[in-house]
Design brief:
The complex is a heterodimer. Chain A is mostly helical. Chain A has one domain. Chain A is built from 4 helices and 1 strand. The longest helix of chain A is centred in the middle third of the chain and has 16 residues. Chain B has a single domain, classed as CDP-alcohol phosphotransferase transmembrane (TM) domain (Four Helix Bundle (Hemerythrin (Met), subunit A), Up-down Bundle). Chain B is 78% helix and 1% strand. Chain B has 8 helices and 1 strand, in the order H-H-H-H-H-H-H-H-E. The chains are: A mainly alpha, B mainly alpha. Chains A and B meet through strand 1, helix 1 and helix 2 of A and helix 1, helix 6, helix 7, helix 8 and strand 1 of B. Strand 1 of chain A pairs antiparallel with strand 1 of chain B.
Chain lengths: 65, 209
C-alpha cells in the first residue's frame, strides 16, 4: 500500500504548525504574502477608518476598465 | 541569502554600534528595557492621536532599546534570570500599550468594529506569548507559529508608516489566532506522548491507493 500526500493539505498544515526559521525561503514567502495583503488590498474593502482611496488593486482594476 | 536575511544583516550594522556605545557607557540592561517601554508608551499616545508617522518613528526608537538590552546583558554579564523575567514582562506592557493606543483612536473615530478588532488582536497577541511560556513549563520547547513579537512590531511599523493599520490589525489578529491554536495543539501532542511534530496531520490526511 502506498501513501500519497495531498499537497494543499500539506501546505495548509505546515502553515498552521509553522516551524520554519526566520530567514528561510518559506518565511520570505509568508512575508511577501502578508505585505501583498497589507499594501494591495483597497482600504475601502476593509472599511479602514484612517486610510482612504482604492489602493493598488483598486487602481489596477480601474485602469483595466 | 534570503530577502529577510539580507534586511537583518543590513539593520544589524548600526545596531552593533549602539550596543558597543551602551556597553561603553555602562548602561544597565534593565534600564534599557524600561526605556524601551517608556518610548512605546509615547508611540501609543501618537497612535491614539492618529499621528502614525511619529508613532512609527517612536516604535523604531523603542525597539532599538528592546533589541539591544539582551545583547548588552550578555556582553556585560548582567544576563540574570531576573533580567529575562523583567524583559518578558516589559515586552507585554509594550505590546498592550500599542493596542490601547489603537483602541483609543478607533473609539474616538466612533468605529466600534475596529475597537473590537484591536481588542481581539491584543488578546491573542498576549495569548501567543502566554501559551509559549506556559507550554515550556511542561514541554522543553514550544517555538511554533509565525506571529511572534518581532513580526508584530515590524507589522505595526509598516502599518504606521504606510497608513495601513487596519490591514495590519487583521493580519495580526488572524495569524495570532492561528499561532495560539498551533501552540495549544503542539503542546497537547507533545505532553500526551503522541506522535512527533514531524509526523504531522498532513501525513494522516492521505489517500490510500
Amino acid at each position: 500500500m502506498k501513501q500519497v500526500y495531498t499537497v494543499p493539505a500539506l501546505v495548509l498544515w505546515r502553515s498552521f504548525l509553522w516551524l520554519y526559521e526566520r530567514g528561510s525561503w518559506q518565511y520570505d514567502l509568508m512575508v511577501i504574502a502578508i505585505l501583498g495583503f497589507v499594501w494591495l488590498t483597497p482600504p475601502a474593502w476593509l472599511g479602514d477608518p484612517t486610510a482612504h482611496g482604492p489602493g493598488l488593486i483598486g487602481w489596477l482594476l480601474e485602469m483595466l476598465r | 541569502m534570503t530577502f529577510t536575511g539580507a534586511i537583518g544583516t543590513i539593520v544589524g550594522y548600526p545596531l552593533r554600534g549602539i550596543i558597543r556605545a551602551s556597553i561603553a557607557l555602562r548602561i544597565h540592561p534593565n534600564i534599557l528595557t524600561l526605556t524601551g517601554v517608556v518610548i512605546n508608551v509615547l508611540a501609543a499616545w501618537a497612535l491614539g492621536l492618529h499621528r502614525f508617522v511619529l508613532a512609527g518613528t517612536l516604535m523604531i526608537a523603542a525597539n532599538i532599546f528592546d533589541y539591544i538590552d539582551g545583547k548588552v546583558a550578555r556582553e556585560t554579564h548582567f544576563d540574570t534570570p531576573f533580567g529575562g523575567f523583567w524583559d518578558s514582562v516589559m515586552d507585554r506592557f509594550s505590546d498592550i500599550t500599542l493596542f490601547i493606543g489603537l483602541v483609543y483612536l478607533y473609539a474616538e473615530l466612533g468605529r466600534t468594529d475596529y475597537v473590537i478588532t484591536s481588542a481581539l488582536a491584543m488578546m491573542f497577541s498576549v495569548m501567543t506569548s502566554y501559551t509559549r511560556a506556559r507550554a515550556e513549563s511542561i514541554i522543553p520547547k514550544c517555538k511554533v507559529g509565525f506571529m511572534e513579537r518581532p513580526e508584530r512590531i515590524v507589522l505595526f511599523m509598516i502599518g504606521a508608516f504606510t497608513n495601513r493599520m487596519a490591514a495590519v490589525l487583521w493580519v495580526i489578529l488572524v495569524l495570532s489566532i492561528v499561532t495560539v491554536g498551533a501552540r495549544i495543539y503542539y503542546t497537547w501532542r507533545e505532553s500526551s506522548g503522541g506522535s512527533r511534530p514531524e509526523q504531522d496531520l498532513a501525513e494522516r490526511l492521505v489517500r490510500r491507493t
